[in-house]
Amino acid sequence: GNENSGRNPLILPEYACQRATCLKHFNHKFTKALEILQKHAELRDNERDSSRALAFRRASCVLKSLPFPLTSMSQLKNLTNIGDHCKRVIQEILEDGECREVNELQDDWFQKMVVFTNIFGIGSATAKKWIEKGWSTIKEAQEGYISSDWRVRWGLAFHTDLNTPVNLQEAQYIQQIVRKEAETILPGIILQITGGFRRGKEEGHDVDILMTHPEEGKEVGLLARLLQRLQNKGIILCGNLEKSTYSDEMLTLDSKLSAKGQLDHFEKWLGIIKIPHSCSENPAMDYSGSLSIISSCVHKGTGCSVDNSTCCTASEQPLNYQPLNLDESLDLESKAKKQKLGTENEISPMELAKLDRNWIARRVDLIVSPYDQYFYALVGWTGNKQFNRDIRTYAQRELGMKLSSHGLYDLNKNCALPARSEKEVFQNMKLQYIEPWERNC
Ligand code: DCP
Ligand code: MG
């Protein structure tokens, strides 16, 4: 029977940041359909569609926080954020078990758009052009597309690797490598996996790692040195180091951010690294041993060294790491070998991908935050994206405050509100604490 039919319809708080939204919930049947509608609207990608996409997502998010499976339309009575279009979809699924509109949306065009936009560096505009050319497979794009964007070159070449989800063991393995190197450079560093893994997901498309140091200013210069060390170990395939563009005025205005689709102004590195195939099968494996397995391909001349000309376009910040004479433990011999091999054995990303290899390419984001912004950065980089949208809207509309990954600014009192923990971020916004795994909106 229907346990809820006799009860009053549920009342949920309006904003997702006021309620728990977990990965497991009772209404996947409906949320999957709504998220296909959302995805389709996003891929069509014009102004009207993007607000429709958000409406589908908001509705889906409400259904995810329902503490029971939806069995009748009357249960939606007091719920906000579910518009007429969404109601039609839900009703059809309740009656027929599926929704015709959603089924019809998943046509050839949609499938191709999903495949193409899953390539690192490819957005819906390029994907549309490829479809107009008559392309429908990754292979056609790999053979026919010449890009000046390093992300696209590597994204196309390593599409199979990067489209294989990163699992939790691999994420922890990557965190371990980064932590060991970062701690050597900067003892006392704080390092945290954020993104989907922090929200309890078991798989993801990348590994997001946020770093800081409790002594203000100590974190400056860390990232370049860390990358140099990872590069010396032969595990970096490509990437781009972005300098921090933060200034205090950004606490109050962040129109520039949203215009560029940027998330924040932190110093960060977005790139691709290689990890041994075996690390997810055997998480207990000593990674210093496996590093010699993967870096041995440098010595075999597979050209996995980071190279400015193959990894970055002129318009992007080149991989211009500081020379590491500060670093006593720098392995000069391997550096010399690599420099030699770099010129003699340069091969393209595509050739590199086709080699018989014992490693897999993985997308990694490394972000560095000053300590006084860290807990806001942690909330922002934990996400998810929809949770961020919602908590920022809540701050603006309900409190007259500006929330970003850099901080919280009270626009009425004209002051910033510091936070020394994630709980304080929520307290500052008069919100009950929502655990990371409850932010899966
Ligand atoms: N983020 C955001 N807005 C963006 C990009 C990112 O708010 N445009 C935040 C929220 C995300 C977090 O950063 O949760 C990490 O970004 P990812 O794209 O890696 O997203 P996830 O880690 O959530 O997903 P996945 O598991 O696919 O990596
Ligand atoms: Mg992620």
Tell me what you see in this structure.
With 441 residues, this protein is α+β, with helices and mostly antiparallel strands. Helices cover 45% and strands 12% of the residues. It folds into four domains: 16-104, DNA polymerase, domain 1 (Orthogonal Bundle); 108-145; 163-368, Beta Polymerase, domain 2; 378-438, DNA polymerase, thumb domain (Beta Polymerase, domain 3, 2-Layer Sandwich), CATH 3.30.210. The protein has helices at 28-44, 47-64, 84-96, 100-105, 108-117, 124-132, 138-144, 150-157, 159-163, 168-185, 195-198, 222-232, 255-259, 287-299, 308-311, 332-344, 349-354, 374-382, 385-399, 422-428; strands at 166-167, 190-193, 203-204, 207-212, 236-242, 267-276, 359-368, 401-404, 407-410, 415-416. The strands form three sheets. It has a five-stranded mixed β-sheet with strand order 2-4-7-6-5, with helices on both faces. α1 packs antiparallel against α2 and α1 (28-44) crosses α3 (84-96). The chain is globular and about 60 Å long. Mean pLDDT is 86; it is low at 1-6 and 292-344. Magnesium ion binds next to α11.
Bound molecules: 2'-deoxycytidine-5'-triphosphate, magnesium ion
Assembly of the depicted chains: single chain
Mass-distribution shape: globular
The span between the termini is 29 Å
Biggest sheet: strand arrangement: 2-4-7-6-5
Q: Let me know the number of strands.
A: 10
Structural class based on helices, strands and sheet pairing: alpha+beta
Order of helices and strands: HHHHHHHHHEHEHEEHEHEHHHHEHHEEEH
List strands and helices in order, with pairings.
Layout: H1 28-44, H2 47-64, H3 84-96, H4 100-105, H5 108-117, H6 124-132, H7 138-144, H8 150-157, H9 159-163, E1 166-167, H10 168-185, E2 190-193, H11 195-198, E3 203-204, E4 207-212, H12 222-232, E5 236-242, H13 255-259, E6 267-276, H14 287-299, H15 308-311, H16 332-344, H17 349-354, E7 359-368, H18 374-382, H19 385-399, E8 401-404, E9 407-410, E10 415-416, H20 422-428
Parallel strand pairs: 4-7
Antiparallel strand pairs: 1-3, 2-4, 5-6, 6-7, 8-9, 9-10
Helix pairs in contact: 1-2, 1-3, 5-6, 10-12
